[in-house]
Amino acid sequence: MKICGIRDARTGEAAALAGADAIGMVFAPGRRRVTPEQAREICQAIPPLVARVGVFVDTPAAEVRQIAQFCGLDLVQLHGQESPAYCRELGLRCIKAIPARDRQTLEQANLYPVAALLVDTYVKGVAGGSGIAFNWHLLENLPLQAPLILAGGLNPANIGRAVALVRPYGVDVSSGVEVNGEKDLQLIKAFIKRAREVCAYAAG
Ligand SMILES: O=C(O)c1ccccc1NCC(=O)[C@H](O)[C@H](O)COP(=O)(O)O
To answer: Where is the N-(5'phosphoribosyl) anthranilate isomerase (PRAI) domain (predicted)?
Structure first.
């Protein structure tokens, strides 16, 4: 599971030690944005087997590469209008965010040559981190060719139902583990615990 929108090294390390598989840092404009220097500090604080993910929206490829190298990112997550060709030519492991707008949008996700597809809520004018869930039934019988990461309005209370229904490869959360706009370690722990419980149940 991925905890996104981490803005300081202490919280990043604590989330990783609580069991997160990946830590996300947002480079796109908004209240969760971090500078490359802040992100580099977070990346250095995270244990070696936890993935460092940079979140970008329609950033020129050269800039993404430069930031990825400077910070030591393992993957980049793209939340804009980036094309399949952009992903192919970037030369970095990509997660493409796909808005859960309609079935056609979701089916076209298979054009992307990526490590994973992150399906997130469609909210007009909002690139990500909305805190709003979508109708998970949209994903029923969807033949995706890359591992599915479910995102959008997940929290400790609904993650069980979400995983039981969608059975994604992974899950991503940001708003659902925040209190007053700040990451809350108790909520992060509760989210990870519940996600692990339901994943073990689904697998076994
Ligand atoms: O979180 C942001 O501020 C953000 C801004 C612009 C693009 C993407 C952004 N977040 C991407 C994420 O990975 C979020 O975790 C994902 O959209 C789910 O967010 P939430 O619904 O708040 O759990």
So the answer is: 2-193
Mean pLDDT of 158-167: 95
Residue 201 token pair: 């149940």
The reported pTM is 0.96
Task: Please report, to the nearest 10 degrees, the dihedral formed by the alpha carbons of residues 108, 112, 114, 120 taken in order.
Answer: -40
Q: Which of 43, 74, 94, 120 is catalytic?
A: 120
Q: Which of 4, 71, 87, 94 is catalytic?
A: 4
Interatomic CA distance for residues 68 and 20, integer angstroms:
20
What domains lie within the chain, and their CATH numbers? 2-203 (3.20.20.70)
End-to-end CA distance of the chain: 18
pLDDT digits (tens, 9 = 90+) for 53-68: 999 999 999 999 999 9
Task: Indicate if 4 belongs to the active site.
Answer: yes
For the chain, give the number of residues.
204
Encode 5-35 in three state secondary structure: CCCCHHHHHHHHHCCCCEEEEECCCCCCECC
CB burial of residue 145 (10 Å; 0-12, 13-18, 19+): exposed
Kindly report the protein residue whose alpha carbon is nearest to atom 16 of ligand 1: 129
Q: Has 74 been annotated as catalytic?
A: no
Look at the block and give the residue holding tokens 């995983």.
163
Ligand 1 close to Cβ of residue 24 (< 6 A) = yes
User: Is 176 exposed, middle or buried, given 0-12, 13-18 or 19+ CB atoms closer than 10 A?
Assistant: buried
